[in-house]
Amino acid sequence: MTGAVSSSVRVIVLNGGSSSGKSGIARCLQALLPEAWLAIGVDTLIDVMPARLRLGSEGIGFADGGEVSVGAEFRLLEDAWMEGVGAMVRAGARVIVDDVFLGGVESRQRWEKALDGLDVLWVGVRCDAAVAAGRELARGDRVSGMAEAQADLVHRGMTYDVEVDTGRAEAVECAKVIAERVGQS
Length: 185
What we know:
- This protein is α/β, with parallel strands linked by helices.
- The chain has seven helices and seven strands.
- The chain has helices at residues 22-32, 42-48, 72-90, 105-114, 129-139, 146-153, 171-184, and strands spanning 11-15, 38-41, 60-62, 68-70, 95-99, 120-126, 162-165.
- It has a five-stranded parallel β-sheet, sandwiched between helices. Strands 3-4 form a two-stranded antiparallel sheet.
- Strand 3 and strand 4 (68-70) form a beta hairpin.
- Helix 5 runs antiparallel to helix 6 (146-153).
- The chain is globular, with a radius of gyration of 16 Å.
């Protein structure tokens, strides 16, 4: 994709399970799209939270087998983060959001509220559970079982503007499909 694109899309939301390839797609989109796009992921939000919120019932917890629990204090900060992403876009930034919709449709509704009035491209990033589990194992920085548990869960009841499958195509190919949709907006 070359030259300036006159696109109304200001936000690309990538939803997929752990180790599905969202971060790689986001980096490829940053390289492919002619405008500057910020890539913001839920992992960054978790990294900047106090350590106590990564361990306790009020924060986010990771159990053996990949189960993730989210407490009230985490949810409060996550809502503020979502509103902040919306504010950055309203102030002129273009943003690629890398998220995991553990709450399915409810998670999307929370993003829809924060991004109300903005042009958003909703992208489902799919990956076969076994492929994602292999990536998880190779990474070594994830709770075992999380990728397999989330592979289908995060897509239940969801509709997207575009879907890609990183188990069947490389991140750059998936990013090209998404960039094409951005250019058509």
